[in-house]
From TrEMBL:
Domain ABC transporter: from-to ranges: 12-97
Name listed for the protein in its UniProt record: Unannotated protein
One Gene Ontology molecular-function label: ATP hydrolysis activity
Pfam families: ABC_tran
PANTHER family named among the record's database cross-references: ABC TRANSPORTER ATP-BINDING PROTEIN
Keywords for this protein: ATP-binding, Nucleotide-binding, Transport
Source organism phylogeny: unclassified sequences, metagenomes, ecological metagenomes
Amino acid sequence: MLGEDPAKAGLSWRNKIGIVLQSNNDAAEITVEEILNFFSDYYVNPRNVDEVINAVGLEEKRKSRGRELSGGQRRRLDVALGILGNPELLFLDEPTTGFDPEARRAFWDLIRGLRADGTTILLTTHYLDEAEALADRVGVINNGRIVEVATPATLGGRDNAKVIVRWSEGGNMKEERTDSPTELLRSLSARLAGEIPELTVSRPTLEDIYISMIEGEA
């Protein structure tokens, strides 16, 4: 990892790694700023504390104690601690578990910002939309074994999967999977006199592909 054996690597290597576990912040009685200033002394080349606070969107909470933060804000503080040492590689374990949709989207923006700054991120998640939104490459793990690693667009042959066409006909919703969606749409248009009611055309979602891969492993 990063060119070294983790079992033998020294302090300089460990300073290149950031880890954010599912619960990593128990400092309830000191402020955000104090927490970060305290932990920055542990690193050889820490990021500027003000810069880190700005990066995770806690500017208005820098003087707030840990116990005064919301769940989403505490998670941002966890990430602040994870990036404080200016890591080249950041591990995030289920970072948005328990977040509401708005908080999740805000956190995604934070992750994208870190990636744009050059940080490599290894993220574990059960949210398939999160993996699709954030990942350059996705790895599927089943029973402790890596099933496949690929881009979200190509995982499990997704890029070659049949197109799903759904429409309404005779008062019922119908669905067909096809390699030739244009031909099917032409046929439907002729049969239904032009307009195809409630038409949707899509490829399988990442969740569809994930489920088929896991079921195939069973």
